[in-house]
Amino acid sequence: MLTFLFFLLATANIILSAWGLVTRVYWFFPVASYLIMRELLYKLFHLAGYHAQPELREYSNHKGSVFLPAFEKHTKAYLEIYSRRNKILQALYLLGQILWGSFFLWLMIIIVAIIVYIFPPFNIKILEETYHKFIIVALFLLVFHLMLFCFFKLKKLYLGLFIKLFKADILLYEHGQPIFAKKRKK
Predict the structure, then answer these.
(1) Local confidence band at 140 (pLDDT 50, 70, 90 cut-offs)
(2) CA distances, 1 to each of 5, 90, 166 (Å)
(3) Is 139 inside any structural domain?
(4) Over the stretch 149-180, which tens digit does the pLDDT of each residue have?
(5) Where do the TM regions start and end (predicted)?
(6) Do 180 and 82 touch, CB atoms closer than 8 A?
(7) Closest CA to 86 of 178, 5, 179
(8) What total of structural domains would you count in the chain?
(9) What is the β-pairing status of strands 64-73 and 50-61?
(10) Strand pairing partners for 178?
C-alpha cells in the first residue's frame, strides 16, 4: 500500500511540475513525511497486536499537557471489524490528506510572509511605539488562530466530501482518524 502511495505522489509531482504548477520537485515532503511516518508507526503497533483507541488521551503535568494516542490489545471483535476495511480508500484518504495538508502549509507560509512584508519586524520606525508591537503580535495571533480554525473546518469538510464521493462507510476511528469500510452497495 505504501509503495502504491509513493508511486501516486511521485506521479502527481511529475505532472504538476510538467504543467509548471510547482517549482520544487518535493513540495509535499513536510506533510507527506509526517503522515506516512505516523501511519507506519501505527502499523507497527498493529502488527505487534495493539491498536489505537478512537480518541487521543491527554497527558499533563505542571508545565502543560500533550495529547497522545492510547493503545489496547486486539480483541476478536475488533479484528473482525478491522478485516472489513478498504485499503484502497485508506490510501486515497491519506493521499488527499497529504495534498490538501501540503497546500494548507504553503498557504500559511505565504500569508505569514505577506504579513512580515507589510509589517517588517525589524523596521525601527514601526516598532518605536509599544502599541505598534502589540498590534503586530495581536495580528500574528489572530491570523494563526484563524488558520487553525480553517484547518480543522477543512479537515471535517474533506472527510465529508470523501465519504460522499466514494460512498464509503466509517467502520471505526483510531487515533482520531477514520477507518473506511468497503463501498456501500445501492
Answers:
(1) confident
(2) 6, 9, 18
(3) yes
(4) 988 898 899 999 999 999 889 999 998 889 99
(5) 92-119, 131-152
(6) no
(7) 179
(8) 1
(9) antiparallel
(10) 173
Grid coordinates representing 60 are 499533563
Would you give the end-to-end CA distance of the chain in angstroms? Answer: 27
Residue 96 corresponds to which cell in the numbers above?
488527499
Look at residue 102 in the predicted model and tell me its pLDDT: 80
pTM, two decimals, is 0.72
Per the DSSP assignment, residues forming a β-bridge with 186 are none
Cell of 11: 506521479
Domain annotation covers residue 67: yes
Residue type, 71: F
**Residue 185, domain member (yes or no):** no
pLDDT of residue 1: 46
Q: Are 112 and 143 in contact (CB under 8 A)?
A: yes
CB crowding 54-90: b at 16 or more within 10 Å, else e: eeeeeeeeeeeeeeebebeeeeeeeeeeeeebbeebb
All three cell numbers of 84, joined, read 472489513
State the cell numbers at 74: 486486539
Residue for grid cell 480553517: 150
Range of the domain at 151: 2-180
For 179, the grid coordinates are: 477507518
Q: CB of 180 within 8 A of CB of 86? A: yes
Backbone angles phi, psi at 56, to 5 degrees: -75, 150
Count CA atoms closer than 13 A to 113's CA, side-chain side.
6
Mean pLDDT for 19-23 is 49
Local structure of 179: helix, strand or coil: strand
